[in-house]
Amino acid sequence: MAKTYNRYCVLIWLSLIAGSLLIPFAAHARQPQDSISGGGRYVWVPDSMAGRVAEVLMPDSARLVAQLSERVVYRGDTIPTVLKSRNIGRFDRGLLNYLYIPRGQWSFGITASYGEISTDDMEIFDLLSDIDISGHLFSINPYIAYFVRDNLSVGLKFGYSSTKGRIDSFKVDIDEDMNFDLHDIMYRNESYSAALTLRQYFGLTRRGRFGVFNEVDLAFASGNGDFVRPYNGVLRTTHTTTMQAQLNFSPGVSVFIMENVSFNVSFGVFGFNLRNEKQTVDGERMGNRFTSGANFRFNIFNINFGIAAHI
Q1: Secondary structure string (H, E, C) spanning the chain
Q2: What fold, for 97-310?
Q3: Amino acid 36: pLDDT
Q4: Closest to 157 in 3D by CA, of 301, 264, 274
Q5: Domain residues of the chain, as ranges?
Q6: Cα dihedral 114/308/108/105 (nearest 10)
Q7: What digits encode the pLDDT tens for the residues 256-300?
Q8: Alpha-carbon dihedral of residues 77, 82, 88, 94, nearest 10 degrees?
C-alpha cells in the first residue's frame, strides 16, 4: 500500500513539472501569425497596419534611410518624396523638405478681402453726438503659376483694390481752446497692379497635406484718388495719380482641403517700394513727389486669404 501511494505521488509531481514546461510553448503557438515582435514581446496588429507599426519600431537612423529612399509615381514618373537640400553650415538640424507640389503642375487661385467701418457698428460712438463716419476697403487678386521644379513655382498675379471713406459729420466742442467741426469730407482711391511671383514651398508631411511657403513678388501698380473737403465754404478736390514699384516678401501657410484644392494664408512682413505721385487741385497742377522706403513689420491690412486649384 505504501509503494502504491509513493508511485502516485511521483506521477503527480511529474505531471506538474511537464505542465509548467508545456504551457509557455502552447501560449506561443496560439499567437497570431500577423504580429510584430518588439523587445521580446508579441503584440497583435492587423495586416494593414503592420508596415506602419514596423516603421515606428525602427531605429531613427533606419527610419531616416527608409524615408529618403521612398518614391511615388506621378504621371508615369517615379519621384522621391523627400527633396534633396544642401546643408548650410556645420550643424545639420535634421529637417526634411517633403514633396508638396510636384514639377509640371499648374496652379490657379484668387485672394480677396473686404472690410467696412461705420459709426453704427461701433458702440463707443454712441457716447458722442454729431459723429457720422463710414468707409470700406475691397481688394481682389487672381493669379496663375507653373511649377518649374518640385515645390517651386513662378507666376503672374493681378490685383484691383478700392478704398472709400466719408466723414459726413465730426463735431467736437470741449472748451474754447478745443473745438472743431468736420463735415462733407470724402476720400476715394482705386489702383491696379501686376506682379511677377516666385514661391518656394516646404512640405511638412509625407502625404503632402500641410506646407509652408515664402513668396517673393515684383509688383508694378498705378492708381488714382480724390480727396474732397470744404475750404472757405467751397468744396475743393485734390486729385492724385500714382505709379509704384514694390518688391515684397510674404511668408504663409498652405493646406490641401481637397485632392486638388488648397487653402492659403500669407502675411506681408517685408518689402521695398518706389512711389511717384502727381497732384492737381481743382484741375490746376500743384506738383509731384517721389518717395522710396523699406518696411519690416507685420501689417494687419496685408493678410491675404485665398484658395487655389492645382492641375
Answers
A1: CHHHHHHHHHHHHHHHHHHHHHHHHHHHHCCCCCEEEECCEEEECCHHHHHHHHHHHCCHHHHHHHHHCCEEEECCEEEECEECCCCCCCCCCCCCEECCCCCCCEEEEEEEEEEEEEHHHCHHHHHCCCEEEEEEEEEEEEEEEEEEECCEEEEEEEEEEEEEEEEEEEEEEEECCEEEEEEEEEEEEEEEEEEEEEEEEEECCCCCCEEEEEEEEEEEEEEEEEEEEEECCEEEEEEEEEEEEEEEEEEEEEEEEECCEEEEEEECCEEEEEEEEEEEECCEEEEEEEEEEEEECCCHHHEEEEEEEEC
A2: Porin (2.40.160)
A3: 45
A4: 264
A5: 97-310
A6: 160
A7: 999 899 999 988 888 899 999 999 998 888 889 999 998 877 766
A8: -170
- Taken as a whole, the chain contains a residue count of 311
The amino acid at residue 277 is: E
Q: Which three cell numbers stand for residue 203?
A: 512640405
Q: What does R_g of the chain's alpha carbons equal in angstroms?
A: 35
Give the containing element (helix H, strand E) for 21: helix 2-29
- Residue 276, class by beta-carbon neighbours within 10 Å (0-12 exposed, 13-18 middle, 19+ buried)? middle
Q: Which amino acid is at 27?
A: A
Contact (Cβ atoms closer than 8 angstroms) between residue 185 and residue 151: no
Find, among 229, 223, 230, the residue nearest to 277 by Cα. 223
pLDDT (0 to 100) of residue 148: 96
Query: In the chain, which stretches have pLDDT less than 50?
Result: 2, 5, 10, 16, 18-38, 127
